[in-house]
């Protein structure tokens, strides 16, 4: 049985990878960039071979449906969707193609998806996080920890040139970086709640499904929840897991979305909490009836959104 701390160190040092299970689609045709650009939240025009982008599929209310990693190649565009079935993603995309020159194919069976801090092979998606992408925005003023992450597509049947460790080893590393993933998404999650306007949303590229809600909240509203990082008490060897309630003054105000025991930072978690929870509130995570003290670090502040109102405030410094 492997040591989780050794696995984490090897991941950080580039000596290990995790295996992801998801969909890989190949999209071809002269109109593919235009169709994908009108469908997803990120600008996908003008991509050169090798360019990676992160995008979201949103519903009509601006809620996150899928997280899509986009990789441009010479003859096609690859869509990597962790945790999805290729047939489902293909059916979703087919519904958005009418008379355009676009053909999508499910090539999931041709690849295995490996993730780590270094890439290998010709088809690698390098995560743009945490750099704010053109058209992006962040509400937080806190410095963002370093984060290096690459997804490599390896032909099925071939082994990666690194040790494969349990995917759970990635959780604590990602929590330290404050990096959202599909683990932070439920049926009503908005991009603003998770700081995802930083890399996955282009605020001025034009219409796409959910764009009106994204713009409205960004300009005049506030998302109802916000992402926080929690440093947890591990003195009793009790550790939080995803789904544990987050409490403030005995009432539930949120839920743990990702948790782990980091090799340097100790027990740590990401959680969605109500926007109105004070940033200095002493929180508690309920681990199956065992209370874990949680020190809160702001990732998305309560003031997120309403940027137009802030610009128009008469006494603004």
Sequence-ordered SSE layout with sheet pairings:
Blueprint: H1 4-13, E1 16-20, E2 22-28, H2 32-39, E3 52-58, E4 64-72, E5 77-82, H3 86-94, E6 103-106, E7 111-116, E8 124-126, E9 150-155, E10 163-165, H4 169-177, H5 211-220, E11 225-232, E12 245-248, E13 251-262, E14 266-274, E15 283-287, E16 290-298, H6 307-312
Parallel strand pairs: 1-10
Antiparallel strand pairs: 1-7, 2-5, 2-6, 3-4, 4-5, 7-9, 8-9, 11-14, 11-16, 12-13, 12-15, 13-14, 15-16
Helix pairs in contact: 1-4
Main beta sheet, described? Answer: 6 strands, antiparallel, barrel
CATH class of the largest domain: Alpha Beta
The proportion of residues in beta strands is 25-35%
Query: What is the CATH homologous superfamily assignment of the largest domain?
Result: Probable tRNA modification gtpase trme, domain 1
Annotation, overall tally of beta strands: 16
Tell me about this structure.
The protein is an alpha+beta fold and 317 residues long. It has two domains: 4-218, Gyrase A, domain 2 (2-Layer Sandwich); 224-298, Beta Barrel (Elongation Factor Tu (Ef-tu), domain 3). The chain has helices at 4-13, 32-39, 86-94, 169-177, 211-220, 307-312; strands at 16-20, 22-28, 52-58, 64-72, 77-82, 103-106, 111-116, 124-126, 150-155, 163-165, 225-232, 245-248, 251-262, 266-274, 283-287, 290-298. The strands form three sheets. It has a six-stranded antiparallel beta barrel. A hairpin with a 4-residue loop joins β4 and β5 (77-82). α1 packs across α4 (169-177).
